[in-house]
Amino acid sequence: MIRQNDPNPFDEEEVNPFSNAATAPGSRSRVPPSASEHLGFNDKYDATVNIPLDTLNDSNKKEKELAAWEVDLKQKEKDWITDIKRREDALSKKGIPTEDKNWPSFFPIIHNDIANEIPVDAQRLQYLAFASWLGIVLCLVFNIIAVTVCWFRGGGVKIFLLAIIYSLLGCPLSYVLWYRPLYRAMRTNSALNFSWFFLVYLIHIGFCIFAAIAPPIVFEGKSLTGILSAIDLFSGHMVVGIFYLIGFALFCLETLLSLWVIQKVYLFFRGMK
After folding, report:
1. What percent of the chain has pLDDT over 70?
2. d(CA 129, CA 188)
3. Is the peptide bond prior to 119 cis by the omega test (within 30 degrees of 0)?
4. CA-to-CA distance for 273 and 162, rounded, in angstroms?
5. CA of 259: how far to CAs of 76, 140, 144, 204, 208, in Å?
6. How far is residue 186's CA from residue 265's CA, in Å, rounded to a whole number?
7. What sign does the CA torsion over 188, 193, 194, 197 have?
8. How far, in whole angstroms, is CA 21 from its chain's centroid?
9. What pLDDT, in 10s, does the model give residues 11-44?
């Protein structure tokens, strides 16, 4: 006989997980008594998340360490700047000037302070050498202009490229190889710098003489505004010939000024001994 009052073992009891009442003895509850958190899905119920306090403490500790590191770095940077200024002041007091770029004033690219760094008896000679350096710069820049005019008149692009190379190499190398050594020699009375100046300046004078003549060696001499190039161009293009004649005059003036400078520097060097 089947007993109708027997409970069905497959039936699940309705258990309220949110009830605070204790579970009756013998009941089969699927929710453990320790699960007191609110579970929610699709924002229907609030979900409470327990964050360990150790994680928060570690995060705060890292933030404090980063802040302390940033303050220490800024302090080291200030100390570094202060130390550099202190050293510069010490060098200035000892008579050793710092070579900061100060010329030209509107866009400094080189260091040149003759009035404050060169002895009074050598300042005039140093100004002459500086004029010589400006002269070769002017010659090379005008050489580009004249060769560009010749290129537009059918002279070819090769002479224009050579004129650009002469200028890009000649302007900085003349400053580094002979003007700066003379500047240091005048400032420190260094015989080694004087000797280097004489050697390189003779090469400079040779180049000026070569450019003023412009023999037909490289691309018929049209890459330099010398007298031979000017005579050759006068017959076909008078305007180009005039430009080359002006360039020839500039190279001649630079040659004469350079000969005068090397003579004066040599006499000054002999008088030092």
Report:
1. 73
2. 17
3. no
4. 43
5. 54, 18, 24, 10, 11
6. 10
7. negative
8. 79
9. 555 555 555 444 444 444 444 444 444 444 444 4
**Residue pointed to by tokens 């949110």:** 18
- Per residue in 91-130, pLDDT (tens digit) is 556 555 567 889 998 999 999 999 999 999 999 999 999 9
**Total residues belonging to the chain:** 273
**The one-letter amino acid at 133:** W
Query: What's the one-letter identity of residue 85?
Result: K
Residue 241, sorted as left (phi over 0), alpha (psi -120 to 50) or beta, turns out to be: alpha
